[in-house]
């Protein structure tokens, strides 16, 4: 995937994320008190906006180009157990009680806030995943490190 393809993908991906976020915000549940405290410690500003939605599997984009791109960069696959769409977070039902995963996803919410919105976050995140690989993406590595620091044994 080259830079032009990525740049063409951002508006389509941003629209998808906005629709998914709205669905989760309408159907999800608020964070628990413990999760709110962690979100506050992480530095999230709009904690009250966050909603979690338990799903059997993470929905894939209906748009074929977006679906293929998301699989190519590791954004959404059969193995995805959680994903953050700004203030809306999908959690796969078999990981619903996984504190580490929820903290990881909350870090992505923080990143959306820090980068000032959906399009800016996706622009950086997608480019990092393409150039560095999903596991070596600086945004992904930050989420892993912060979630490790909060993990309760």
What does this structure look like?
The chain is mainly alpha-helical and 153 residues long. It has one domain. It is built from six helices and three strands; from the N terminus they run H-H-E-H-E-E-H-H-H. Strands 1-3-2 form a three-stranded mixed sheet, with helices on both faces. A hairpin with a 2-residue loop joins strand 2 (82-85) and strand 3 (88-92).
Number of strands: 3
For the largest sheet, list the strands in their spatial order.
Answer: 1-3-2
Individual helix count: 6
- Describe the sheet with the most strands: 3 strands, mixed
Structural class: mainly alpha
Q: Low-confidence parts, pLDDT < 50 over ≥5 residues? A: none
> How many separate structural domains?
1
Average pLDDT, all residues: 93
Give the fraction of residues assigned to helices: 55-70%
What general form does the structure show?
Answer: globular
Give the SSE order as H and E letters.
Answer: HHEHEEHHH
Distance N to C terminus: 40 Å
List descriptors.
3 strands, 153 residues, 3-stranded mixed beta sheet, mainly alpha, globular, 58% helix
Produce the secondary structure layout:
Layout: H1 3-27, H2 33-42, E1 51-55, H3 64-73, E2 82-85, E3 88-92, H4 99-114, H5 118-132, H6 138-150
Parallel strand pairs: 1-3
Antiparallel strand pairs: 2-3
Overview in brief:
The chain is mainly alpha-helical and 153 residues long. 58% of the residues lie in helices and 9% in strands. The model has no long low-confidence stretch (mean pLDDT 93).
